[in-house]
Amino acid sequence: MAEATTKTTYQIPIGPIHPALKEPVMFEFEISGERIVDVDVSLGHIHRTVEWTGMQRNPIQILYLAERICGICSYCHPIAFARAVEHACDIEVPERAWYLRVIQGELERICSHMLWAGVAAHEIGFDTVLYLTWQMREKALDLTEYLTGNRVTKAITMIGGVRRDITKDMLPKIHETLNYFKDNFEKLRHIFLDDKTIKMRSQGCGILTYDDALKLCAVGPTTRASGVKKDSRVDQAYFAYPDLDIDYMTPDKLTGEVNGDVYDRIIVRLLEVKQSIDLIEQCIDKMPSGEIVSEPKIPKLLATFKKTSGEGIGKHEAPRGEVFHYVKFNGESEKPYTWKVRAPTYNNILPWIPMLKDEQIADIPIVAASTDPCMSCTNRVAIIHNKKRTILDKEELHRFSVEKTRRLMK
Amino acid sequence: MRFTMLPQVFAQMLKKPFTNKFPVKYVPRNTTKLLEAVGKGEVQIIPPIETPPNFRGKIQYDKEKCTGCQLCIRVCPSGAIEFKPEEKKIKIYLARCTFCSQCNDVCPVNCLSMSNEFLLADTDKYSKDLIVE
Amino acid sequence: MVKGLTKAFKKALWVYHCNSGSCNGCDIEIIAALCPRYDVERFGIRLVGSPRHADVLLVTGPVTRQMEDKVKRIYEQMPDPKAVICVGNCGNTGDVFYESYNLVGPIDNIIPVDVHVIGCPPRPENIINAVAKAWVKLETLEAK
Amino acid sequence: MVEKRLNPEEIVKYFKDEFKIKIKDSRIEKRKAGAKKQEFISIWMKIDKGVFKKAVKHLCELTFPHLAVVSGNDMGKNIELIYHFSLYYGTRNEEVSLNISVDLPKSNPTIETLCDIIPGALVTEREKQEMLGVKIKGIPDSRRLFLPDDFPKGMYPWRKDETGPQKMVRNLHEVKK
Fold first, then answer.
1. Where are the domains of chain B?
2. Rounded mean pLDDT, B40-67
3. For residue B6, which phi and psi values (nearest 5 degrees)?
4. Which pLDDT value is given to residue A399?
5. Can you tell me the distance from the alpha carbon of A258 to that of A222, in angstroms, rounded to the nearest whole number?
6. For residue B17, which residues of chain C lie inside 8 Å, CB to CB?
7. In which domain, by residue range, is D107 found?
8. Least CA distance to A164: which residue of chain B?
């Protein structure tokens, strides 16, 4: 009889409905005393069958379906999908549309990072900072509403270009909002980076080492905070990014050293807000004139989808990381034959194992929120890594996970 | 500086409140009486934050210009537009609409346009004023 | 909405937000309604952590198969004078996700809904307008 | 560690002389972007199933790839899995996207796992296992990913044939008054 191991660890299920989590996700923590031994995330509570539904519709309708994959980054999915379709059907995009797309992308990055900063402060219990950051974010939402007509779902992407132009008389309002951000950015940086409470809670906790981030293919600010230089705006030439001066944002630009903890992720996101502000300004001065969409008549566009057969990939740097779409047309119907969506948080769930190991329970919300998870994007992922020391039939599962931990820890 | 947020909080006290007190400042004693008074124009409610030009609000449908070509039905992502074959006109359910204004762009005779009215909440989702005929 | 609601229901309306599979566009608009610019706290509306303390349930999203019984459980856990406001078109009719194999339909299939907020996502003022409609419905109920 | 950068033709040759006829066909696509006509290069390669794992090991010696996702489509007789890698990230406009596609017969759609080379692959492999019914040999964890537990076993949502989810589909509009 295998010796009866005393059960020293306890299971705590958190979610799917929990005040700390804004979205339904199910954590199962194995803790011994205060220390977390193990993480088991199971999602799928928001599986709305986006890809299957997309295969029953034509690409114009899919643009608005892709927009509702995630409410916060509601611009990156349709733009990556549009890029994939343009790659598959070889549709050219006019130059002015490149710059308009970069402006919308960077404006969404500012909104999303401000939202994240507020929610992260709220996770530590710092509500005054939440109200302050969201007050600044309201300005960004006003600008989004002014440019696109709706605060959150922008509906500005069209396959082959953009749906709304930025005319001369819109520029004063854009510059006024950007100046509002520039002089408030110093205040935000001062509050977030020099504050004792935020430093106390975020320095040295939730560490993701360089080679863990590389091995687990983490993306976005989470991996840049660990020093991996991976940013698809800089790596790849698309839209107007090759003409703008842009560089990887890693913590050593501000503090000179990289240790991949929650504090570094705050630094990377704040640097990216600053970078987005001056990217928008560069775009506004360098924007050539010209039309904004290659094929204004939609029925003609739908006819081209019916004729083409081919496949294409679309990549875009969303606020949380690299969004990847794959589309395949088979030439018979205008509906795509296959459509694969890969959201950035898809790759940022695996790094939770090394981050949350040996942390306290109280750190779970802030460490989980530090990768800026967007569960509605990520209902396609779950990892199992539970070490149950019960005797009976869990043996095989136990052997599997121990062997996996040893391999991961190598 | 140990607590950087403190001076910001004190500075905030001297500034004008950021809140736009939308209908009224505080809870009215009886909402129905208040709404009737507003209807009669005795009471002035504070307007919401004004919407920018070409905001995407409630759809307006110009029935005469419509030729019944059903292009908008083919493009609507949420199936919110229903065709009435006998009079070759369309019927839009606002409870299903995503306010993306794709039907406005595709309409050849552009009889659809977006108003900036957005205060649409009702106890019954298929009530009269939530269906644009 | 049950008849015979107490006077207190009018003053401090505590709200519990349940996300049953939404794209969190409506959820950030609900939180934006609580933030300084729209500040529903001047009406006594506060976000609470558990359905046991809540009077109004703000539900968002087309209910997925896994979340169906959880939404029902939350509805039963709320104390009796309660109201349900369904925010956003996904909950009203599942606007873009109307055809799918893992969604179990608009929210009023699962729990009785009092006020539907139309919009995708509805603006925070629209949510305040919906709360006002809930009060009007409550008063007509009491008048009967 | 600045290792030498191969241009796309050399990468294809690097694989061809290793696996000769196992590489069925490969094509290189270039798309222009930006005023200075920078190129975005993507290489599409079809590899035989037997040699697939060695090819990925061979790729890891060149440079550690970033596995974006595995996308799969149901081609009627067989299931085609496409592994989307991206190489040479880290320097400006240098990234090359390498897409390796493998055909699996529908009779026994099995392939080895990549989790021991790239641990980040566990996530997308589990989704293929559940959505397309592909059996991944040696996957550390084969539990159901995000479909609910009461989802019927033999049903694979992305398949276009009879195991598709037609029976489960519900139209949310039918309940209107």
1. 19-49, 51-133
2. 84
3. -60, -55
4. 45
5. 12
6. 36
7. 8-164
8. B54
What are the residue ranges in chain A where pLDDT is below 70? Answer: 1-7, 15-25, 43-44, 375-410
Whole-structure pTM over 0.90, yes or no? no
Domain membership flag for residue D171: no
Task: Check CB contact under 8 Å for B23 and C116.
Answer: no
pLDDT interval class at B52 (50, 70, 90): confident
- C103 to D172: CB separation less than 8 angstroms, yes or no: yes
Interface test with C, best of D170, D174, D175 (most C CBs within 10 A): D170
Residue D104 lies in a domain: yes
Which residues make Cβ contacts (< 8 Å) with residue A213, sequence separation at least 6? A222, A223, A226, A227, A228, A260, A351
Of C92, C123, C132, the CB nearest to B95: C92
Does any domain span residue D20? yes
Q: Is the pLDDT of residue D134 over 70?
A: yes
Nearest to A46 among C36, C64, C121 (CB): C64
Helix (H) or strand (E) holding A67, with range, is helix A59-67
CATH match for A50-346 among 2.60.40.10, 3.90.460.10, 1.10.645.10, 3.90.1150.10: 1.10.645.10
Lookup: tokens for C51: 């359905």
CA distance D23 to A154: 44
Where are the alpha helices (H) located in C42-143, listed in sequence order?
Answer: 68-77, 89-93, 124-143
- What is the layout of strands, in order, in the sheet containing B89-93? B81-84, B89-93, B131-132
Domain count, chain D: 1
ipTM of the complex: 0.90
Overall fold of domain B51-133:
Alpha-Beta Plaits (3.30.70)
pLDDT at A400: 42
